[in-house]
Design a protein that fits this description.
With 75 residues, this protein is of the alpha+beta class. It has helices at 7-20, 55-67, and strands at 2-4, 28-31, 45-48, 71-72. It contains two helices and four strands; from the N terminus they run βαββαβ. The N and C termini lie close together (6 Å).
């Protein structure tokens, strides 16, 4: 899971990853929701990318995510 503060960043990264890794499921952009949280305005944007386990590919993903001030979380 990739985490971003801005929707535009998440969508751009998802589109790039879809182009880089067409063999994987299409990356999905979703809004993080926390139980009991009233203000969704502060919620992060998540890019869900499934099926990518290659270390070299993950390093490439990390470099891309870093350019957009995001990060990768397990899960």
């Amino acid at each position: 899971m990739l985490v971003f503060g801005e929707r535009d960043d998440a969508e751009e990264v998802a589109e790039t990853l879809g182009e880089w890794f067409p063999e994987l499921s299409v990356p999905r952009v979703v809004r993080e929701t926390l139980a009991g949280e009233d203000d969704a305005e502060d919620a992060q944007w998540l890019v869900v990318l499934e099926g990518l386990h290659d270390d070299d590919a993950l390093r490439k993903v990390d470099e891309l995510v870093e350019r957009y001030d995001g990060w990768r979380e397990a899960g």
